Amino acid sequence: MSELFKFGRRYDFHEIVADGIVNGVGIVFALVGATALIFYATVWSSHGGIAAAWIYGLGLVLCLSISFTYNIWPHSRTKWILRRLDHSAIFILIAATYTPFLERGADDPWIFGMLIAMWATAVFGIVLKCLFPGRYDRLAILLYLAMGWSGVMVMGPVSQYLPGVTVWLIVIGGLIYSLGVIFHVWERLRFQNAIWHGFVVAAAAVHYSAVITCFSLPGSSL
After folding, report:
1. Which DSSP symbol is given to 6?
2. pLDDT by residue (tens digit) across 1-28?
3. pLDDT in tens, 166-191
4. Is position 1 within any domain?
5. Which CATH number characterizes residue 72's domain?
6. Cα distance between residue 72 and residue 106, in whole Å
7. What is residue 159's DSSP assignment?
8. Which residue blocks in the chain are alpha helix, DSSP H?
9. Number of domains forming the structure of the chain
10. Max Cα separation, the chain?
11. Can you give the pTM of this predicted structure?
12. DSSP, residue by residue, 106-146
């Protein structure tokens, strides 16, 4: 196979099965959770909240579904295309996860500007991954982390619109994602990919809890 199609080391059967199970469990919970969230937002939230719930729910399900498909697919030209989509979907998930929180304070120009910047960075990352596949992977990881922790810059004003528990759940989920990056780059470790995706699913679950509290509890200062 051409040197173009590099995907790191090849995972054995047991590693692929373990990774598929982790991603599969994540997809099931994401589908159920997204459906419940959208229903709740439709009944109780504003039009902006409904849109944010849809964006977040679709982003979550899309990212986990693409990850599942890409990681179980055999090495081939198709997998190389799926790799672009998989890495691009991470940018979508990060921006989509922030959307419900930033939407709550969108009347604040600083918070609204952060929402726009978040999606602009996601678009830049997607273009980077699609036009330059297999290159700038380290830059992409830095962009993931930068996007994930950029919310710190608006944490003060955003906390005025969110319940205190929501803010703490956002931070905890971010820490779990960041710790998982260690395993994402530790390619020599057996079951490394399954462990990394375990962190992803766990962090996504924590952030889902943050979104639920964001919609169901009144905002207040920390």
Report:
1. -
2. 444 455 566 788 899 999 999 999 999 9
3. 999 999 999 999 999 899 888 888 99
4. no
5. 1.20.1070
6. 39
7. T
8. 13-44, 47-72, 77-104, 109-131, 137-149, 155-158, 164-185, 192-216
9. 1
10. 57
11. 0.91
12. TTSHHHHHHHHHHHHHHHHHHHHHHHSTTSSHHHHHHHHHH
